[in-house]
Amino acid sequence: QVQLVESGGGLVTAGDSLRLVCAASGGTFSSYAMAWFRQAPGKERESVAFISRNGGRTYYAESVKGRFTISRDNGKNTVYLQMNNLKPEDTAVYYCAADRVSTEYYYNRDAGAYDYWGQGTQVTVSS
After folding, report:
1. Distance (Å, rounded) from C-alpha 12 to C-alpha 125?
2. Is the pLDDT of residue 61 over 90?
3. How many Cα neighbours within 13 Å face the side chain of 35?
4. What is residue 83's DSSP assignment?
5. Measuring CA to CA, how many Å separate 79 from each of 52, 58, 89, 96, 102?
6. Are 118 and 79 in contact (CB under 8 A)?
7. 81-119 pLDDT, tens per residue?
8. What is the pLDDT of residues 19-42, one digit of tens each?
9. Contact 12, 18 (CB under 8 A)
10. What is the pLDDT at residue 50?
11. Which 3 state secondary structure label does DSSP give 112?
């Protein structure tokens, strides 16, 4: 059983940066592919970024590509989402999620594959 706790959200102005942190406990962190998802009010959850177990592969949604960077530190059981040049449309609750996978370079882009989720952290970007 993995517990995930996100932090780092807040209220910022367009063009600002934030770094979200997701701390994991209760499992072997390096066994999990990790992902960030987000959900804005009245909208469906959408994927933001994925990272493989060893950090060697990443994937970004088109809407954040070039602005967001996902990374992980397996020694600290932590995954990060560096968000630069934030836009009002990035406003959402951001969730990290974990998917136990057997292959180091694999991640699943289907949210349904992720068994463990954090409680979310609010990011609000004003114009």
Report:
1. 5
2. yes
3. 28
4. E
5. 11, 12, 23, 8, 19
6. no
7. 999 999 999 999 999 999 999 998 999 999 999 999 999
8. 999 999 998 999 999 999 999 999
9. yes
10. 98
11. helix
Q: How would you label 37-59 residue by residue, b for 16+ Cβ within 10 Å and e otherwise? A: bbeeeeeeeebbbbbbbebeeee
pLDDT above 90 covers what percent of the chain?
Answer: 98
- Look-up of token digits 């998802």: 37
* pLDDT value at residue 3: 97
The alpha carbon of 10 is separated from its chain's Cα centroid by a whole number of angstroms, namely 15
Q: How many CA atoms lie within 13 A of 79 on its CB side?
A: 32
What single string gives the DSSP state of each residue in 9-72? -EEEETT--EEEEEEEESS-GGGEEEEEEEE-TTS--EEEEEE-TTS--EEE-TTTTTTEEEEE
Token pair, residue 119, equals 């409680």
DSSP 3-state of 5: strand
The pLDDT, as a whole number, for residue 92 is 98
Q: Which residue has the tokens 């999620």?
A: 97
